Amino acid sequence: MKTFLxxxxxxxxxxxxxxxxxxxxxKLLAWSEYVPQSVIDGFTKExxxxxxxxxxxxxxxxxxxxxxxxxxxxxxQPSEYAVEALIKAGQLAPLDAARxxxxxxxxxxxxxxxxxxxxxxxxxxxxxTVGIVVNTELVKEPVNSFADVFQEKYKGRIIxxxxxxxxxxxxxxxxxxxxxDVTPETLAAAKPILAKWIPLVKVxxxxxxxxxxxNGDVWIGVVWSGEAALLWQQNKKFRYVLPAEGAHRFxxxxxxxxxxxxxDGAHQFINYCLRPEVSKLISDAFPYTNPNAAARKLLSxxxxxxxxxxxxxxxxxxxxxxxxAAAQVDKLVTDLxxxx
Amino acid sequence: xxxxxxxxxxxxxxxxxxQDKQPVPRVPSSSPARPGGSFCKxxxxxxxxxxxxxxxxxxxxxxxxxxxxxxxxGFTLRWYGELARNQPLLDAAWNSLVIAAVTTVLSVALGTLxxxxxxxxxFPGASWLALAAASSLVTPExxxxxxxxxxxxxxxxxxxxxTVIIAHTTFCFxxxxxxxxxxxxxxxxxxxxxxxDLGATPAQAFRLVIAPCLMPAxxxxxxxxxxxxxxELVVTYFTAGPDAQTLPVKILGxxxxxxxxxxxAVSTVFIVTIAALVVLGEMLKRWRAVSP
Amino acid sequence: MIFPWTSAxxxxxxxxxxxxxxxxxxxxxxxxxxxxxxxxxxxLAVSFCQRDELGRIVWSFTTENYARLFDATYWNIFVRSVxxxxxxxxxxxxxxYPVAWFIARQTEPARSRWLxxxxxxxxxxxxxxxxxxxxxxxxxxxxxxxxxxxxxxSVPAELLYTPGAxxxxxxxxxxxxxxxxxxxxxxxxxxxLLEAAADLGAxxxxxxxxxxxxxxxxxxxxxxxxxxxxxxxxxxxxxxxGGARVPLIGNVIENQFLQARNWxxxxxxxxxxxxxxxxxxxxxxxxxxxxxxx
Lengths: 340, 292, 294
What we know:
The structure holds 3 protein chains of 3 kinds. Chain A is of the alpha/beta class. Chain A has 14 helices and 10 strands. Chain A has 2 domains: 16-127 and 250-305, Periplasmic binding protein-like II (D-Maltodextrin-Binding Protein, domain 2); 129-248 and 313-339, Periplasmic binding protein-like II (D-Maltodextrin-Binding Protein, domain 2). In chain A, strand 1 (25-31), helix 2 and strand 2 (50-56) form a beta-alpha-beta unit. Chain B is globular. By secondary structure, chain C is an all-alpha fold. Chain C has a single domain (21-293), classed as MetI-like fold (Orthogonal Bundle). In chain C, 70% of the residues lie in helices and 1% in strands. Chain C is built from 15 helices and 2 strands. Chain C has a two-stranded antiparallel ribbon. In chain C, strand 1 and strand 2 (57-58) form a beta hairpin. In chain C, helix 8 packs antiparallel against helix 11. The longest helix of chain C is centred in the N-terminal third of the chain and has 33 residues, at 72-104. The model of chain C is unreliable at 1-11 and 287-294 (pLDDT under 50). The chains are: A alpha/beta, B mainly alpha, C mainly alpha. The interface between B and C is large, with 117 and 118 residues.
């Protein structure tokens, strides 16, 4: 017992002394592994502010952690529809533009989003799309649309991200509807399409859809652009296409909650991340679309040529907050997956 | 049945008094008293192959030069180098060990106490108590995580080590309780009565007679608690603050960015470290047993 | 009593509650009240509530969340989850019993070493272990390679992302929770009984069925509880190895909290799971008390 008690006591002391280290702190609530350690270290070195990085894996999880209120966060990293929902609920503090002079580095098209016009509450961190990735060694036919992907001949060879709202938005796109047009009527119209598609899919994976593609278990799929970009880096046989029916673009942003304890540090952090050379570090680690025009000038031609990171212009739409309709979307997809 | 493994090595620095209360003559393995002896051995080896196949793959992956581990592309130590430089990952591994160790102690204490009291004493509503204790076995992790988060938020408890340990103990101690209850069932009550008749206090009777009898169950319960705590992801997710991120939480994040051989490296190091701790504990104990 | 092993003993031997016993019970009661009962009551309350647009709880009473449960989809999913869990439990018992038996018959220190050997794989993180299974089961994976080189199959078999892969993953995850409690109960079994059975000419199989099985029943029941119950609510394995194709009850609950932002419905599902567990425990164990004690 003695040995153990000593061990437990040492452990207890370790974290008590750990808590004793006081100094300016910044509590960051961000997507897992989405903020490179080099960025955090650089910020701490320059400002002396220690960053505590806590992670989440979905916007809903972030909302759960934030709204429970057990911890107060200084900077959070919601995606566009979560930004919108948080603004509606009065949960975000307005940004003080005077303290974020680097805002000017953002490309103009990233400053005029309907969910937060003029970046009053949030600034884009990285943007991405959801599109089609094809293993061109195994799929010879041209694939340009959702209709090309979900065909009987690819049954058991398709992967999709495990996200009910995404899936429904693809069906809405083939119907020519907006991905934000989620009503009982549009869901009813989407249902027969989804009922045909769902049994064709072999894997649903939101976390690492590239795994099944790399392993050769599936040939074709609808995935996040960042995943497709990593696949392309690995092997040029993986081609990324934005679906002809229209695609969804997501904007991961930085924002400050109303109850932030260190709003000043939060502004400093946001401004720091908008520096071109810092923003480049983010692009190096995660090949999404960098919204920072000044930073893009620093990227290598190889990075800019990645079709998944910087796809040709096409019909891109962002998700708006659909509130309680999220539950109906979930029910529809659960029903259909169960029925197959 | 002195145990020689991790949690136990940590737990049982002081060996329990007497182990083999009923000396049983060992019978040769061919004896009919050991039905199916060689079958069981063969089966055990097969099960070990099943258990270790993924571990072999994992360890091999940590030395594979291939970034995505698709095929063998040559031997490398690169991933261990990257691991050594990845301070957050190492911190997370340390956090996991600390949390699992403290959780194990608390779970053994609570679980054994619960099993013993329910076995020994008549309490009004005892079955409700047992049900409450076991209900955390059935509560899906996500629900437990969220409900504890709500609870901590309601009492304004800041999230950190304490909250994770509380959460882990809550779902780990029923495992100890169930294991100990299984052992207590049908245990010869006359043993304790004899001890009491011979003038032992109830505390002495527990310490000298009951506890050694329960030790295999306590040890297997402790092993389960340690293992569960070490590997728990979802509850930890919701109850850990930014300072108390554990290895599984960290690994989940890294796995999102891509299958990374550094993860294989950290798992390999983790297994080897704990195994080394165990061996060390065992050696220490032997050394202490030899020197008076 | 909920569990067979608490009810099996002669209750006349139990001591009446003394102040001392209450004192010992206090920390346990406190812990249960604070960290088990309180959160459960909060969830129970939440399950009768509504939510706002953002997914926050609105404290106004509704039974709508329970009404939604009467839907064939959820019933199907529930039955499927129970099926997976039952199969997993059966395989864990069959696979684990001989191992527990073998280890319990060893002497120290070999016994501890064997136990340790069984547990070590579980200290490698769950996710990393599961990714290793993907490496084994994928279509260009090790198992397919092995089968092809042995000329047992000519084209790669579909192993990954099938119900079979889910069951393999479940059995792998829960096997130690079957082995350990069975080990604890085999270990305490009086070996002289086996010798007596053999001396009386009992066939080994008869000895197993008539002597060993009843004596180790508490350990088996503990194993069933520790494997079956958590396996019902599992979701990560069906996602990773099953490709998330057919939802299990754990996935549905997960979705309510992490996708649909519908805590009240998620809480209601959790409450139903808890109630069913209590009911099974009562039906399966509590009512057999007389039979066990005799």
